[in-house]
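mind reviewing these tokens:
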Amino acid sequence: MRRNDKEIKDKKCIEQVLKKAIVCRIALCDNNKPYIVPMNFGFNDNFLYLHSAREGRKIDLIKENNNVCFEIDILTEVLSADNACSWGMKYYSVIGFGKAQFIETEDEKKNALDTIMQKYSPNSPKSFEYSKSALDKTALIKVEIESLTGKKSGY
């Protein structure tokens, strides 16, 4: 990281960013061209959990190459100034790399969906009910995180 003064070195702070963020942007490889897509997600035990339709471009790309990069940010705010070149941003961000794999078993799918649901509905039960048809038509993706870096500015 070029700006060491902005690096988040505290692992707990990085995990808080992962837990508070609403959107995760995942970057995939499409031959020699990048492809990025925003997704809902869950985070638990060094894994990201993503859900998707079972077909589509991102599914095809993960099948071809399961290397992913992801970006998450929170508390972003534009900082204006009198001089245009003095404007800036406040933020916390996390960038990570990992390997994506499809979750196939019903129990693992339920656990992944529970992780995602708990993120967006923290006052709900720890376990939810899912119909077999919903599980069958949903792709669940587990990203094993290989590396993470955090950065903050203005805080």
In short: The chain has a mean pLDDT of 92. The helical segments are 11-20, 57-64, 106-120, 132-137.
